[in-house]
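Blackboard transcription, Thursday session:
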Amino acid sequence: MSTQTSITGNGDNLKTLVVVFLRGGADGLNMVAPAHDPGYHNARPRIAIKDTDTGAAKLDGSFVLNPLLKDLATPYHDNALAVVHAVGSEDATRSHFEAQDLMERAGDVAGGWLGRYLRFRGATTTGALSAIAVSRALPESLRGAPSATVMRSLEDFTLGKGGGPLQASLEKLYAKEHDALGNSARDTLKALSRIEDLRNATYAPAHGANYERDDFSQGMKQVARLIKARVGLEAVSLDIGGWDSHITQSAIMDPQMRKLNTGLSAFYRDLGKTMEHVTVVVLTEFGRRLAENSAFGTDHGRGSVMFLMGGGVKGGRVLTKWPGLTKDVLEGPGDVPVTINYRDVLAPILQRHHPKVDLAKVFPDYELKPQVVYG
Amino acid sequence: MNFSRRHFLQTGSTASLAAVAVGCDKLEVPDALRIGPRAVAPPDGPFATPTGKDIDLVSQALNRLTFGARPWDYQRTRKLGMTEEAAFAAFLDQQLAPEKIDDPNCENATRRFELLHEPLGELFEYQDKHLLDALVRSTVLRAVFTERQLYEVMVNFWSDHFNIDPSKGDAKWLKVADDRDVIRAHALGKFPAMLRASALSPAMLWYLDGRVNKKANDADKPNENSARELLELHTLGVHGGYSQKDVMEVARCLTGWGVQEVGRSKLNLGSVEFKPYQHDRGEKVVLGHVIPGIPKKANAAEIEKLGRAELDTVLGIIGLHPSTAKFIATKLCQRFIADAPPAAAVSAVAEQFIASGGDIPGTLRALFATDAFLTTRGNKLKRPFHYIVSTLRATHATTDAGSAIQDYLLRMGHAPFHYPTPDGYPEEAAPWLGTLLWRWNFAVALTKNELGNATKLDADKLRASFATEENQMAHFLGRAPTADEVTACKESGAPLALLLASPSFQKC
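(Written on the board underneath:)
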């Protein structure tokens, strides 16, 4: 952990939740392949991943990692990364819009689950930088948060161009305020000046971590810097789009998997021991059909994967109620059914981060059956 | 200025022909051809501003009874009486009779949202997201432009008290009717009437599951959600002296009410109905009051009559109950006085609430007469909605309440009609303290005119509205500036942004 003290109001044992949304319906069967299931190879004669493929890391007796995700084998074998398989939501429309909407909102209710988590997490105060979306607009999941920031990069954290004198004047005025508003202003100003310092310094990721130049890696780098600067970050949302692999699956998915692989693994190396206080959750709105289509692609399906990294999750395993891939278990047009609801994976993580969180308000109208995420 | 529609269409078409004929793209529409009332220009400046070193009673009134002072409001309000007290009393009289206040600018600003006036069933013709956008925008625009400020402040108060999250089910369409027919219809009316309207609001019946609360056979268990929130949030308050048994009994009394749903009937869509065969006919006891069972021999018409009447019996028991009076009085005092208001003020307001039969203007008069209200000034943190609206009013900015404004409200977690749980947005300061950075950013963006094309202020014109720089500061602060504030303004390089971002402007 950095020697800097945490900005007050957010507690000194602050945990950060980083949510990565793979938009477009990422194919879990291609990322974490059931390489020993004959049903998989029969349905995908041309595009299946084989455990003999170069770089395909064996996870357990049943699953192998896509070679393009090979660097995730390191946290997996450190027991810091878990895969959840055949996971997803109850939405069966197979519509991107509907399924993303449901997954981010988690019900017929205002705001997103991440926003409601922040509002009902049982903390009395919320820092200026408690929630950040690394994107152009506020994602649905963060709607309703008591304070949410949208940023592309650290450059966005200013009081406008030439805001220095304004900031200095505000500092003087708020110095005279001795109530909660004054304290909050001082925290906010402190956060601004720490970010100012970050902006002016070149950042050297720790442990030789190497962030690539794509948006996702750059976003993860900014998140790592903010976590190390201890500005009070509690929830982060990032996206990787472009997973809708209807044709030539590899041409569509391979570049996205490369981004996911390098971004996550650089973040993991960079944070080192700090990963204990940071949980990364990767999810997608739905998986793809088991059978490949005539265009070497896959169509919209149901169950997919989630990745859970850091934060003390019990890693080194594939958490699944694997249904098998026989005809009788496939759902609708031939899709891996959802045997674990994503809320049941998120709930224990939110509770770990904030034991007093009111989960009934975060996930209303849903009877939780929490999965065993921790050892 | 009321034109008949035909008259308007004739003159309108003449005007457009003229525009085509001259090919002029900067056609000035003559006032006589405009739709709606003539816009009223603000009075001429320079305007008088507060002179005291503390907030005076007139500024207190503008801080608490309105969404913030416009450049001329202090002068105009102060002139209503010889003394501050007389001016305040006259202002209060005006504000408590909103129907007598002309409101042309607000009518013009919200005229485009005609869909909000559609009858219940017609609302389903619109996409829900368009309805929500119209509702949010018109709510912001009314707060900014209306002269009926206290009415709008109370609309804001009751919207939280009877909060409905329009994400749920048919509330997506029906919340528009609830806002109009429950909240706005009764915001300065009688509490018991508003309570009844809310209990029978189709949006509320959806939101709190009242529509599925039924006892059609022995296996049916009444749905308690609606009964619980009716007691806990709408009337008695959580410590209001009711038991779990009372919740269950109230739920039984309310069985049988439903809403015509999408997919079932095209007729009367969204209208409320009572289904006698789904009503629990047994005896109930609510807070000690026995409500006799409906006789076994009763015919359908009798069951319907007696079953419907149980709703009114329940509301009669709880509507003006001492716990309800205390609960409503506490919330009003938290809104208008302090997050932790003194008990004496709460009792005075509660007494008047009961004595007046839940008359909201009468209750507010009692509140505004308490020592606590008159002397507790500048201590309340503006919630983000109040903050944003007050910046637009203070700077006399134009706005369309479009995406730039809504984005800020969303980021600060205070967009209208976006709160998930039935307790409504919190009133106290603590949950909003994390929003300072976004208030400051908003102040910078507004004063640099970086909030899109439709939200603009004219800093030169604003400055010319006041005789001196210090007068302008006094307008924003509601009192004469301190030496520190004068220095900070000078040093900041952005005096308007500094004022809007300053500690005093966060409060009211």
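Lecturer's comment: Residues 208-318 of chain B form one domain.
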